[in-house]
Amino acid sequence: MVILSTAHGTRNEMVLTTPTPEIFREMSEGNPLFRSRAFAQEQLKRNVDEGRSLEVAERWVEAKVRGGKTTAEVYGLVRDRDAAMLGHSHELVDPAEFPDPWFFGAWVRGGNSGAVVIDFDRAVRLQFRAIAQAAKAERDRRFAELDVDDLAFDREAFALAVRRAASLDELKRVWPEGVPR
User: Fold this and answer.
1) Cα separation of 156 and 160, whole Å?
2) Under a CB-based contact definition with an 8 Å cutoff, are residues 168 and 118 in contact?
3) Could you give the angle at the alpha carbon of 110 between the alpha carbons of 52 and 3, nearest 5°?
4) CB of 71 within 8 A of CB of 24?
5) Which residues are 16's β-sheet partners?
6) CA distance 91 to 100
């Protein structure tokens, strides 16, 4: 499971927050480092300095000191500590429900925190940008290795192909030959 949020100040862009296995372990068993009062105080101050509320920072540090948290409580703490700084409208979601990860940057949430869908217009822009960046990186790599055969990349032809793609599958197939994805 992951915490899905709508990013602050965006047009329904998505943010995913996933607690690590270490976080689950520490919050169920406690973390011996946090039992040092000085270390716990340092972590509390650091959390507040990073912009978290004192109440959230105290709950986070207390969970690390004592442990005993359930999976649901850990997700709640991660939501309040990390996801809240990145976005709003948080929801615990099974990643299997997400659309094609190839177009993660084009994921948007439907109205009223609905299902995650792919904004096709945004996907077109992202695909072209990815092609251009990958082709440049490959040209730079070949130049650094003094490979005299320059990568043939017709920017205008790829721009046209990306714009003409009628589906996400077609869009994914638009990629320069010999350029790693």
Assistant:
1) 6
2) yes
3) 35
4) yes
5) 4
6) 19
Neighbours of 97 (CB within 10 A): 10
Report pLDDT for 150. 57
Question: For residues 28 and 22, what is the distance between their CA atoms, to the nearest angstrom?
Answer: 10
Query: What pLDDT is recorded for position 139?
Result: 80
Read off the tokens for 118: 């792919």
Mean pLDDT on 140-163:
73
Element (H, E) at 49: helix 37-49
Nearest CA-CA partner of 103 in 128, 82, 85 = 128
Burial of 93 (0-12, 13-18, 19+ CB in 10 A): middle
What separation in angstroms does the CA of 145 have from each of 35, 70, 142, 149?
53, 53, 5, 11
**Confidence band, pLDDT 50/70/90 cuts, at residue 146:** low
**Residue 20 bridge partners (DSSP):** none
- The one-letter amino acid at 180: P
Q: How many residues does the chain have?
A: 181
